[in-house]
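Narrative progress, year one. The postdoctoral researcher (J.K.) led the effort to move from monomer predictions toward full complexes, under supervision of the PI. The following entry was the first complex the group processed end to end, covering 764 residues in total.
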Amino acid sequence: MNLSFTEEQEILRKSAKDFLASKFPKTKVKELEESDKGYSTEIWKEMSDLGWMGLFIPEKYGGVGMTFLDQALLMEEMGKVCMPGPYFSTMILGAFPILDFGTEEQKNKYLPEIANGRRIFTMALTDLNGKIAANAIDTKATASGNGWVIKGTKMFVSDAHVADYLLCVAKTSDTSEPEKGLSIFIVDGKDKGITRTLLNAMANRLCEVKLDNVVVSKENILGQLNDGWGMIKQIFNRIVVAKCCEMLGMSQQMLDMTVQYAKDRKQFDRAIGSFQIIQHYCADIFTLVEGMRLGTYQAAWKLSEGLDCMKEIAIARSWAVEATERIIGPAHQVHGAMGSAIEYDLHYYTRYLKASELTLRSADFYPEVLAQTIY
Amino acid sequence: MDFHVTKEQEEFRKQVSDFLKEELKQGLWKPTIDAWIMAYDPAFTKRVAAKNWIGLTWPKEYGGQGRSAIDRLILTEEMLRYGAPAACHWFADRQIGGSILKYGTEQQKRELLPQIIKGEMYVGLGMSEPEAGSDLASLKTQAIKQGDYYIVNGQKTWTSGGTYMNYLYLLARTDLNVPKHRGLTEFIIPKNLEGITTRPIHDITGNEAWNEVFFENVKVHKDCLIGKENEGWRQVMEQLAFERSGMERLMANYPVIEGITQFVRETKFNGKTLSQDPLIRDKLVNLKVEFEIGRLFMYRVAMVIDEGRSPEWEASMSKAYSTTFEQRLAAVALEILGLYGQLAPESKWVKLDGLAYHSYLSSKGYSLQAGTTEVLKNILAIRKLGLPA
């Protein structure tokens, strides 16, 4: 049992930290948040040159061939700067599902294009009801000729406005067991019948995607027909761990900012960090962050090693969602009114962290996983 | 990174667990909560010693096994899981042996460590005093040097296991003319010295949990001094990190977890077991998450010890966190038991043998023993996060 990083991981963490700090000062994050695309194609290219677009993609598909744990550690660093853009979408919602479930042909077609930074992917999972469950998918795909026709409205699709491809989840069979009637389609974002509308969301770019009789060939079914829910659960395992990693980075940064503010800010002729109540707020945040670190690393390591880890992922998720509010609250309290000012940086972390929490909360089937281990 | 223990460690866990199951089968003792501090059983301690499980991490040259802190954590985790009566040797094994190893003379190591390892030396802790709790350094018990002896006068309190302990760890003031942190010295003394008397303190559960210990002109030989004279404060800080480091801060109430889980599985209302009630399910899942994160905190402390570092902030964090968890566990267990929660261990109709009741009352002390939660948070804030004192 040990918690140390390999030399390679240390190098990745260090170089990522330096690169991200130089590329994403908050002035840049602000600029990107206000831009149409929401990300910088130049920095995207640089990240691609660093190998980040193919970090975990095997070399035979044009990637670097590192592990999911390496990817997870990189996500933690990205969380520290609140990096905007479609990186999470492309990697976790696009590349991983294709790598995990795609046919050899699909992998050869899409993965090299992702690895070289030329394609942006996302996943259209949730419907108007906003729930993550097998029986929550209303979007329908109907067999027609040599392919399928998809009709429905997808919600909260991250970065759909810039995505080249969407992995779209649709109902393909009207069975009484909804788990056995879902499929995932690889849909070209420019296909006829697709309308993408950007929503005005707290942090990340989220879209409504309307699919009005979009025609998809049967070669574009990811994995097995009607096996969508089985895949989604596995895809969600990666989503949860990667989100937890981002949240860990954000939370650590929030702690660091809070401690620094407590040291610098003077009232009653002394640093407010000398007051015990402020010290205890900081100690509480610290404890929550460390719990998040251990829970997240445990899940990331197990997932990366290919071990059975539903329980560990459920623990990491539950901890992260419960900790979020208990971190944000005291962090703001210590910062005083300044924490709410748009000119000060704390709000980035408040918004991105809270948005991540809400994303994870949507996967509310995880607590039942834990309940099953108890009873 | 690796979150698995080794095969040998898994095997070791099984050995310990098999041993304890066999003991239970033979009816040698009953599982209790707080067993590590309340359940004194010299015969059990001797049987554990016969397995070479006391002083597990100490060097072989002094009779130890030279094993890792993770190994010891596994051992204690199993002891606590079964609520085994390990209180006689717990303190000496957890923190006193380590102090002797680090600061003791060669002679002390050769004399004292084997006694602990054989399961014959039970050490009570003489730190707190009526006027020195969180402000431990303000303690007043004096040890004044006279020739080859120190003459000890004063009073200690909250000393565990008064009747069973045959040795005392004593932190006393040896220099009255320097600032309070600088004049303290550590001793390990036989408890049968003339002039030592004890008076039991009963806790909220009715147990004889602690003792006051009075010293009246007690002659302590200078060979009982551990480490350097007047260096006691620095030395005890490290000992306290070990005192706070253990699994007992998380798992002392494990039988309550098992008991309440069993209870909700078996108890029916309106044709359904309580375990099917979503509100109860939610409560137990939350406890599970908190428990598992606490366990990770504990294993990290052991990893830090194995790296050769004193787990000062890590142990402060894990102790403050885990005692909060145990208090919540007890409260949730009582809440689920409802009206039955108020029935004491010997009462007719009591559920869970009264473990949850006992746990609830006992747990109020957890966040005070071995460093209050407030002191531990101060350590995190000031010594680790660098906030101004």
